[in-house]
Automatic annotation (TrEMBL), chain A:
Annotated Pfam families: GvpL_GvpF
UniProt similarity note: Belongs to the gas vesicle GvpF/GvpL family.
Keyword Cell cycle attached: no
Protein name, UniProt field: GvpL/GvpF family gas vesicle protein
Highest taxon, organism lineage: Bacteria
Broad class of the protein's primary localization: other
From TrEMBL, chain B:
Keyword set includes Phosphoprotein: no
PANTHER family: GAS VESICLE PROTEIN A1, GAS VESICLE STRUCTURAL PROTEIN 2-RELATED
Taxonomic source organism: Streptomyces ficellus
Family: Belongs to the gas vesicle GvpA family.
Domain of life: Bacteria
Location in the cell: Gas vesicle
Protein name, as recorded: Gas vesicle protein
Major subcellular site: other
Keyword annotations of the record: Gas vesicle
Annotated Pfam families: Gas_vesicle
């Protein structure tokens, strides 16, 4: 039976004192197990080989329902760990054959894990997304477009159209300026910042156009100020969304490198605006 | 007056129901990527393609575009 169970590894941590919240379930509904090797702990769970062996896994990753359930279970375990320690999350679907494979993983990556854990200790990740909603502001303030036949000459109509277009262009410029200003301010409070690809509205279902999709690594003690700064943003035609606190997913892989250049923001904004 | 104990919360994690796209931004692009005797070198998989393919095919079926009129 154990032959067709593989070892999924959610995260690596240092030994910790607290207890995981009760009822935490990983993939397959099983509570995560802690496997200690030296001064590191791998947080693992048994998963079926029929899903997680190489070939099925490749196929499963393209099944959205499966991907979503797996991602949520992975995050549930990492979030639970975050209540007791500062975990180093691993990439989705990191799977070893057995416990000795997990031990080798800890052994071989030891130095890298220790360095990353040190760098991420006491820090959380916040996600900040900025959406441009061109025309939304203007539509709310100005009179709604006149109903057909409600009067007004053709010239008035053209003037209104022109104003609406200018207003939309102004919205784009405001969104762009806000992204730059906000990203600079938030980066100032953060240990590191990175920019994800803007989200496609078809996938997120969010209104507006996502022009900034950034993540910030912030010390827990500075998080309140960070959140207040984000929540204070108010700009017509622009919507700002905060997510988190997350375990430092976006900073685990680049834990050994310096902060990401903030130039990427400008490029991302331009691209999204197309 | 006694109120029966509320039934167990339907989903304890409901309050932190996270948008799948936000989660996938982090889980498919973030996290430590390891090599070793893993079943699948996840870095080898073209995850950008995976997530977009999976998501778009699912979106295509049941979500009409609310932005059709947009120019």
């Amino acid at each position: 039976m154990s032959a067709d169970r593989l070892r999924y590894v959610y995260a690596v941590t240092r030994p910790f004192d607290g207890v995981l919240p009760e009822g935490v379930q990983g993939i397959d509904g099983e509570p995560p197990r802690l496997l200690r090797h030296g001064d590191l702990i791998a947080v693992t769970g048994a998963v079926p080989a029929e899903d997680f062996d190489e070939a099925p896994l490749r196929a499963r990753l393209e099944d959205l329902d499966w991907l979503a359930a797996t991602a949520r279970a992975h995050d549930a375990v990492v979030a639970a760990l975050s209540t007791v320690t500062c975990p180093l999350p691993l990439r989705l679907a990191t799977v070893c054959r057995d416990d000795s494979g997990v031990r080798r993983l800890l052994e071989e990556g030891h130095e890298r894990f220790v360095r990353a854990l040190q760098r991420l200790d006491g820090r959380v990740e916040w996600g900040v997304k900025v959406y441009a909603e061109p025309g939304a502001g203007a539509g709310a303030e100005d009179a709604p477009p006149a109903a057909p036949g409600a009067g007004g000459s053709g010239r008035d109509y053209l003037r209104r159209r022109l104003e609406a277009r200018r207003s939309r262009e102004g919205d784009w410029e405001r969104a762009d300026a806000l992204c730059r200003r906000l990203h600079a301010e938030l980066s100032g409070l953060a240990e590191a910042a990175t920019v994800h690809r803007p989200q496609d509205a078809r996938l997120s279902g969010a209104a507006g156009v996502n022009v900034l999709n950034a993540a910030y690594l912030v010390d827990r003690t500075r998080s309140q100020g960070f959140v207040e700064l984000v929540e204070a943003v108010s700009e017509p035609g622009v919507r700002v969304e905060l997510t988190g606190p997350w375990a430092p997913y976006s900073f685990a892989g680049i834990a050994e490198e310096g902060p990401v250049e903030s130039d990427a923001v400008a490029a991302g904004t331009r691209e999204a605006g197309r | 007056m006694t109120i029966p104990a509320p039934p167990p919360a339907p989903a304890p994690l409901a309050e932190r129901r996270i948008a799948l796209v936000d989660l996938l931004d982090r889980l498919l692009a973030g996290g430590v990527v390891l090599s070793g005797d893993l079943t699948l070198r996840i870095a080898d998989v073209d995850l950008v393609r995976v997530d977009l393919k999976a998501l778009i095919s699912s979106v295509g079926e049941n979500v009409g575009s609310p932005w059709e009129g947009e120019t």
